[in-house]
Amino acid sequence: YDDRDGKIWMDGKLVDWRDANVHLLTHAMHYASSVFEGERAYNGKIFKSCLHSERLLKSGEYIDVPIPYTVDEIEAAKYEVMQANGLTDAYVRVLAWRGSGTDMGVASQANPVRMAVAAWEWGAYYGDAKMKGAKLDISKWKRPSPETIPCFAKASGLYMICTMAKHQAEAKGCSDAMMFDHRGYVAEATGANLFFVKNGEVHTPDPDCFLNGLTRQTVIDMLKEKGIKTHVRHIMPEELEGFEQCWLTGTAAEVTPVGQIGDYNFEVGAMARDIAESYEKLVRA
Ligand code: PMP
């Protein structure tokens, strides 16, 4: 991803893609003092753009990385990057981090917080799983308690276990991993939320220790409009066996049906397909 043409917005100006570098003694590299957003633009418009920028600022507050930009400035930066790279359909990545400076210890209040925006084309997150259903491994890594980490922040540090879980999943031929939370309830995948269907009703884990995704919220509204009863609650692992359909939601994942989690199988059923199609229409509306 580093050696290519294009422009990246860094700290207020566009730089050549290849020159978008930071110093080795960047605080974030050593101590995970960074937060980010993943967004998708469709037909030149970023879906829920302002909500993503607001979440970024909130994530920064959670982990004491105060971002020196307003929502409007972040919005302008994202569109500037899309335009500079000639993109209308794109994945947009905004990153804010504590940089290098006078401190190199754990405390780093004096080091400036920096921000960058990159955008590129990114097709289906799970490849052809949209039709067949994604295959998920069950991870041994648990989503942590809100008392151990600011779990509602989209903070890079939280992705360490996600990367480990996803590497393990891919080594087993799966596209992603489902994770339980610290209490043993079904939580989410490594970068997407989960929904299940049983007897025509939808069940989705209560996001009380993980990211309540914007796509998740959009899909819950969509289900309400369609008159489909949705239960937001704690889901026990043994319930997986009784669910008929399952799908993942996320900005990158969009709505992707799931065919398998561990040894449990799900059909890529009518509701999963309908929600995936409705989401596709909505983001392009
Ligand atoms: N959970 C995690 C861990 C994620 O990284 C993401 C992607 N941001 C999501 C859920 C889904 O969030 P959203 O729908 O806002 O993209």
TrEMBL record:
Keyword field contains Amino-acid biosynthesis: yes
PROSITE patterns found in the cross-reference section: AA_TRANSFER_CLASS_4
Superkingdom classification of source: Bacteria
Pathway(s) of this molecule: Amino-acid biosynthesis; L-leucine biosynthesis; L-leucine from 3-methyl-2-oxobutanoate: step 4/4; Amino-acid biosynthesis; L-isoleucine biosynthesis; L-isoleucine from 2-oxobutanoate: step 4/4; Amino-acid biosynthesis; L-valine biosynthesis; L-valine from pyruvate: step 4/4
Record SUPFAM superfamilies: D-aminoacid aminotransferase-like PLP-dependent enzymes (SSF56752)
Cofactor (UniProt): pyridoxal 5'-phosphate
InterPro entries per the UniProt record, alphabetical: Aminotrans_IV, Aminotrans_IV_CS, Aminotransferase-like, B_amino_transI, BCAT-like_C, BCAT-like_N, Class-IV_PLP-Dep_Aminotrnsfr
Catalysed conversion reaction: L-valine + 2-oxoglutarate = 3-methyl-2-oxobutanoate + L-glutamate; L-leucine + 2-oxoglutarate = 4-methyl-2-oxopentanoate + L-glutamate; L-isoleucine + 2-oxoglutarate = (S)-3-methyl-2-oxopentanoate + L-glutamate
Family matches, as NCBIfam families: ilvE_I, PRK06606.1, PRK07544.1
Role this protein plays: Acts on leucine, isoleucine and valine.
Protein name in the entry: Branched-chain-amino-acid aminotransferase
Gene: ilvE1
